[in-house]
Amino acid sequence: MNDLPQQLANGLLLGALYGLIAIGYTMVYGIVQLINFAHGEIFMIGGFGALTAFLWLPDGTSLLVALPLMILMAMACSVLVAVGAERFAYRPLRNAPRLAPLITAIGLSIALQQAVWAFYPDATKSRPFPEFEGGRLDFGAFAISRGDLFLLIAAPLCMITLGFFVSKTRTGRAMQATSQDPDTAKLMGINTDRIIVTAFAIGAAFAAIAAVAHGLKYGEVNFKMGFIAGLKAFTAAVLGGIGNIYGAMIGGLVLGLSEAMATAYIENIPGMSQLGGGAWKDVWAFVLLILVLLLRPQGLLGARVSDRA
Amino acid sequence: MRHRSLFIVTTAVTVGALTLSACGSRDDSSEGGSGGGGKTTVVIGLDAPLTGDLSALGQGIKNSADLAVKTANKNNEVEGVTFKLEALDDVAQAATGQQNATKLVGDDEVMGVVGPLNSDVGQSMQKVFANDNLVQVSPANTNPELTQGKDWQSGKKVRGFDTYFRTSTTDAIQGPYAAQYMFNDKKLKKVYVIDDKKTYGAGLAATFSTEFKKLGGKVVGTDHINPDDKDFSSVASKVAQTDAEFVYYGGEYPAGAPLASQIKNAGAKIPTVGGDALFSAEYIKLGKKNSEGDFASSVGAPLETLETAKKFIADYSAGGYDGAFEAYGGYAYDSTWAIIQAVKAVVEKNDGKLPGDVKDSRKQITEAMQDVKFEGVTGSVGFDEFGDTLNKQLSLYEVKGGKHVPVKTGVFEG
Questions:
Q1: What are the structural domain ranges in chain B?
Q2: For B273-296, what is each residue's pLDDT tens digit?
Q3: N or C: which end of chain A has fewer CB within 10 A?
């Protein structure tokens, strides 16, 4: 078990990535009760936005110089797509039965994926993403690659900023109010449409940061990467209690950790050697999800929803 | 309200589906009956991943087959016959490949099919072609089961489909060839074996392990990964914990490159070795500096060193194709050429034209394929009683300076 610290680090890093994407799911669900299945594609588009920014810069530009521009570009692309989706795909269906926007979301996710695939040059295969030079950073018990450093800094920073925004600013409190009861919030003079757009935009911005982190971590972007990432982030959001922004982060970390632990240790348990290893990690992650939902249907941090359903 | 929107959705989906299928049938009818000018048109079908992660290899196959067709038409290789290529995209998925096979079988002008790239796709297509006696020549399938049946390892070799041929050698010798090189030439005795659980990857990893253990090497660990995944950090950390001297990966480059890279990032400065599906420029592009020192085996000899390939390489670059011919370009050319030669044999036997009947033509071409022999791009092309190539050459490549450099070429002797 001497590689435990390393596996914990692997799991936490993976989990932080899931958590960052999950925030978008959770915020949108918290306010409009919509499971935005296109969120994974908004994440993917952020990755391609960052890559585009890097390709614009002259060859040999240091990644440290390019990074701020890449983040901005990623955010711009993701936010634009998310806000556009809200305006043109979801808002017209605001009062439609719950099923209609859900199907729209799935359709939108496929459309966005195919749009990148068809129109982004050379996107029919994985595109290499710039990486930090130099090897890994050794912390004694464990080591991480230089690309992970970005994620390590960005994830807590994002959470603190978001926590501050939601609890301390006017818009943040209006957001809480809207999520509690949109009709009353409207009567109190809150422009709920604007709040909903804000929720989509913040979720997309976080997804864009996650996309840059994903690119730096794995060294590539792919037009299909939104699907699996979106599914995992959705799982993380449900695990943590959908609608709860801290729950999304906790859910992500729990999911990432359980995947790492399953890969590393399940096969060491006597009689389980066939059920361990990398190919089975998703199975164990979803077994965990089912267990949590059986024992605590509202998720780890979720509150019981009684008045609205 | 609820009922109405559900109704609208259902209608929309149905209309959409109908429109799509209508498009398909229109395509078919416009392509049919184009054998004007007194010349017969013979369509050679092609199936490969033209989009998606493996598209680099797929496009190389398509372009090279196109070159063969153009060359045959230019040289008037078969008197009175004009060849045409119809390329379909299987996105590296078995189900799509099977649909494509059905489509090709349904087209009366198709007399042979080149492809596919992936062994599991090949497996899904075999029966469809066999039912209609349509000959299939794969430039890249390497799983032994496709020609020699399920029990090939125990020596009970049974050919399943008379219509299936291939110009690439099999994993039955590709894995062991790499094992011999790593053990005998590189003197590495401990390996960590990882595969992606697909037909190709798992088969390759198994043949490698068997030979490596037979030689006296030690497998210090095994794992499987999901090829759709991108995060292999946990598996990589496990590898780094062992004293493995190299990693053998049975699988393809979209997952192989990040896996090898993450293993090195995890602190294990050891090479990753794999089969022909790692032998792609994309592998190096994705793995970047971390791919340096990794190995890949591939079928045949390096085309650059072959006298027979010089003309192909020159013609390919003159053809102005998008992208390189990649690992299977030469084999795709030879596969296409083999079909052209089989058509030629049948035409010569039938007084200068194909038998009028489609079924009869296909059957005769399939039978003619068994005896096809010529000097191809990749060496001498011909088939044994299982439909496997007679050319059993193999090569190993090492990534040096951002390129795959051949380090050894030979014939496997087990």
A1: 25-168+306-383, 171-299+394-411
A2: 999 999 999 999 999 989 999 999
A3: C
**The CATH number of A3-130+145-295 is which of 1.50.10, 1.20.120, 1.10.3470, 1.25.40?**
1.10.3470
CA–CA separation, B147 and B388 (whole Å): 7
Helix, strand, coil % over all residues of chain B, rounded to 5:
50, 20, 30
Does B308 score more than 90 pLDDT?
Answer: no
**Which of A96, A219, A225 has its CB closest to that of B5?**
A96
Quote the CA–CA distance of B130 and B119 in Å, as a whole number. Answer: 16
Q: Does the beta-carbon distance from A143 to B266 stay under 8 Å?
A: yes
Domain range annotation of chain A? 3-130+145-295
Q: What is the mean pLDDT of residues B158-172?
A: 92
Region B306-327: mean pLDDT is: 91
The pLDDT confidence band at residue B11, using thresholds 50, 70 and 90, is low
Q: How confident is the model at residue B272 (pLDDT cuts 50, 70, 90)?
A: very high
* Chain A interface disruption, residue of B233, B322, B326, most A CBs within 10 A: B233
Contact A100/B at CB under 8 A: yes
My answer on whether omega of the bond before B355 falls inside 30° of 0, hence cis, is no
Test B235 with A277 for CB contact under 8 angstroms: yes
pLDDT band at B116 (very low <50, low <70, confident <90, very high): very high
Q: Does A259 touch chain B (CB under 8 A)?
A: yes
The answer to whether A236 contacts chain B (CB < 8 Å) is no
Structure tokens at B30: 């416009």
**Residues 281-340, chain B: which have Cβ within 8 Å of A?**
282, 285-288
Q: Within chain A, which residues score under 70 in pLDDT?
A: 1-2, 303-309
C-alpha A192/C-alpha A274 separation (Å) is 52
Radius of gyration of chain B, Cα coordinates, nearest whole angstrom:
22
Residue B13: the pLDDT is: 55
Which residues of chain A lie closer than 8 angstroms to B194, CB-CB? 278
CATH architecture of B25-168+306-383: 3-Layer(aba) Sandwich (3.40)
pLDDT higher at B332 or B156 = B332
Q: CB–CB of A136 and B265 under 8 A?
A: yes
* Domain formed by B171-299+394-411, architecture: 3-Layer(aba) Sandwich (3.40)
Residues A240 and A247 sit within 8 Å (Cβ to Cβ): yes
In sequence order, the 6+-apart residues with CB closer than 8 A to the CB of B76 are none
ipTM of the complex: 0.89
